Amino acid sequence: MSHEDTELPDDIYSEALPPGSKLLSGQYEILQYLSSGGFGITYLARDSLNRTVVIKECFPEAFCSRVNKTVRARTRNYSDDFKSIVALFIREAHALSRLDHSSVVGVHQVFEDNETAYMALDLVDGRDLLDLIENDTVSFSPGEVYRMALALLDAIGHVHAQDLLHRDISPDNILVDKSGRPVLIDFGAAREEASRKSRVLSQVLVVKDGYSPQEFYVAGSQQSPSSDLYALAATLSHLISGQAPPNSQARLAALAGNQPDLYEPLRGRFPDYEDAFLAAIDKAMNIVPAARIQSAEEWTLMIDHSKRAERARARAMDDKTIDLTVMNLVKSVNRDLQETATGVADAAPATAQPRDSTPTRDKPAPKAVVEDLTWSADEYDGFADDEPAPRETPYARIVAATQRMRQEPKRRKLPFRISMRRMTTVPVIFFAYFFYGQTALKYEQVQAATVDPIVRLGEEFRTWNEPDKANVEISRGIGG
Ligand SMILES: Nc1ncnc2c1ncn2[C@@H]1O[C@H](COP(=O)(O)OP(=O)(O)OP(=O)(O)O)[C@@H](O)[C@H]1O
Ligand SMILES: [Mg+2]
């Protein structure tokens, strides 16, 4: 509501604070009364930084009255009720102050004064939706209604994510600013809780015919996010059809009496709107809570194509993660196998090859043997540069090492032990095969990560269990 545009309300509520009243030691000054709804009085005010804000005063008129500026329980009997309502108001204001969404009114401050409680809110420069609907000169295009619905769904999703319900969504509690952005005001959850404690409040404060779902009429009934979504659907239905929907209690009574539903579905009646958009409103308006849309997100996905595409992309990203996991598995298995081959070669002369020869069987050049072929510093020390080394030739050393290996059967077991350790990965590999086989991964990738390592492991075994064959190849390599 813009400060300049605001007309003075026709009926100045006699219990309202007069303009010029100061609150919180002069930090706020009341500029004008805006409205009263039975539970609170709303004012336009100026804060200490000279900004115009909206102040809501906790004033449940059934229980209290004003004496000078101070708010007191009407009678001693109401004293406890009044105190607990003020406490609920403060608790609710604190919960609201944690909400941070462009389509939820911002709470600046919560404070106590005049023996009641107040909240200072951001001023929304605009008009409420009820006012706009009833004003013949304003009409919303289907595109505007659609954008408004998405913004409100996002805001309601945000509220629900904090474990809060709005509980009083209706056209008069949605302000539309000059850019067309809808803003939710006037949360009713504190009133609902207060009404459960007081029969007087329960009669007047908690339901709004046409917008409240049937469960709001039954004290202590189960309320859920779908209750708020019903009220949003009723609001959108009013915006589209120009008529407030029928009272949900009357709908329930008609259905219970085997009469047709008093709510006429929007789908098929407004060709300017997408069918899916109208169908979603009709579903959210179902009289049975379990048959409604259950979350703001579910509703958004039903009507927003780009959100659906975004969701599909996010799923694809997840698949990429799986992809990456498999690729890493492939890499690590390959690395392990390579290490095994190197470790085996360290211990077995069968793979020995001269430094310059190409390794046979595509295995990496065995490290230990390569080192063997090099004169070590120790061996070289003590000899003159021109003096030939008095040791065996590299070839002779390889032959000696091979003979040593033959005489030491224990060392032949080393490759087998290493391979056994690798074998423990087989169940993991099988599990991966079946797990990844369920995904959308390409068959080759699954194969590369699972079956291939097993096959290579088998080949490795065969090689190491045939040392003589390996020897033949190696000696051929040396000779050639
Ligand atoms: N943040 C705001 N910015 C601009 N105008 C506001 C704001 N909050 C409330 N108003 C104006 O004050 C009116 C009443 O506010 P609100 O809906 O919060 O209280 P209510 O319905 O009168 O009282 P109750 O809380 O008892 O239901 C709104 O319809 C709107 O015109
Ligand atoms: Mg209101």
Automatic annotation (TrEMBL):
<dbReference type="GO" id="GO:0005524">
    <property type="term" value="F:ATP binding"/>
</dbReference>
<keyword id="KW-0547">Nucleotide-binding</keyword>
<dbReference type="InterPro" id="IPR011009">
    <property type="entry name" value="Kinase-like_dom_sf"/>
</dbReference>
<keyword id="KW-0067">ATP-binding</keyword>
<feature type="region of interest" description="Disordered">
    <location>
        <begin position="341"/>
        <end position="368"/>
    </location>
</feature>
<dbReference type="GO" id="GO:0004674">
    <property type="term" value="F:protein serine/threonine kinase activity"/>
</dbReference>
<dbReference type="InterPro" id="IPR008266">
    <property type="entry name" value="Tyr_kinase_AS"/>
</dbReference>
<keyword id="KW-0808">Transferase</keyword>
<keyword id="KW-0723">Serine/threonine-protein kinase</keyword>
<protein>
    <submittedName>
        <fullName>Serine/threonine protein kinase</fullName>
    </submittedName>
</protein>
<feature type="compositionally biased region" description="Low complexity">
    <location>
        <begin position="341"/>
        <end position="352"/>
    </location>
</feature>
<keyword id="KW-0418">Kinase</keyword>
<dbReference type="InterPro" id="IPR000719">
    <property type="entry name" value="Prot_kinase_dom"/>
</dbReference>
<dbReference type="Pfam" id="PF00069">
    <property type="entry name" value="Pkinase"/>
</dbReference>
<feature type="domain" description="Protein kinase">
    <location>
        <begin position="28"/>
        <end position="308"/>
    </location>
</feature>
